[in-house]
Amino acid sequence: MAEELEQKIDEATYKRVSLRIDAEWYPYHKEEWFSQVDIYEFFGWRESKTRSLVSRKLYHDSNEKKPPLLEKKGKVYRIIDDDAEEMDWQNADSTKVIDIVLPFDINEYVKFFPKTIIVVAGEPNAGKTAFLYNVILKNMGKHIITLYNSETSAEQMKDRLSHFDIEIPSPAPFMTKERYENFADIINPDGFSVIDYIDADNEFWSIGAEISRIYKKLNKGIVVCAIQKKENFKNFKGQEIRNTTGYGGSLTKKRPALYLTMTSSIPHKLTIEKAKTWAHLTINPNGMQWTYKLVGGAKFVNIERDYENEGEGG
Fold first, then answer.
1. For residue 3, what are the CA distances in angstroms to 6, 8, 16, 70, 199?
2. At 190, is the pLDDT very low, low, confident or very high (cuts 50, 70, 90)?
3. Is residue 84 a part of any domain in this protein?
4. DSSP per-residue letters across 8-54
5. What pLDDT, on the 0 to 100 scale, is given for residue 78?
6. Do 45 and 135 belong to one domain?
7. Are residues 107 and 75 in the same domain?
8. What is the pLDDT of residue 93?
């Protein structure tokens, strides 16, 4: 009798744990990976019995429930999303190209449609911020731009912007906001956003996930963002081995329509690693390279196409 009563209590407790996870965890953690520990900490569940019920709940939702609610990978889970919005591609306007000017005249080779991400993966001191500031200054007259800054203080920003040969009115024709993470939560889906930069401390895998979240948030907007990149290195034969992605690896290449890398070697080099939409059908921009010099952390000078080494990107 006592055993039967205890079993009923356990089942009642499991039901309460299950209902709380269903109501208070799942709706707010879609499109992300989470662990049992994340759930323990969120609810403050420290008792071993309660934690075992969480384990049972997650096992049920990933293995026993048909169809499964969760996908399990190692020790983490994600909520399976089986919803897909229908696309009316036949009534889309394929001539609706975003008018955007980029440094190095990259816009002469690549065109951009609404819902676009551009990623600039650069080594330290290669000019990532300079590239982003140039994008802002070249386009602030025709787009309402918001800069999300996690790279510099207000004083440093003012100093760097003073090195450009462009007089910025007061108030500036672009907005600047301080932001360090979860950019997808705040960007305007139809706006022009510049992010300097996406960092993830040591959880580099999350950079690609953040870029995906940003892409899914976009409607007609465009995002230009910077990420860090490891420096190229030489193997035992003295041959240079190029890192063609930023921290986060190939997942950071998944969503962008344009993916650039910038090196801090002398001379600096910019490479188009990925270009989805060519401006001219007969001119493939993938692998195009330019050498350059960075002056004052702002100006790109001595820009030259590096025809000899082109074709290494992609």
1. 5, 9, 20, 32, 53
2. very high
3. no
4. HHHHHHHHHHHHHIIIIIGGG-TTS-EEHHHHHHHHT---HHHHHHH
5. 92
6. no
7. no
8. 85
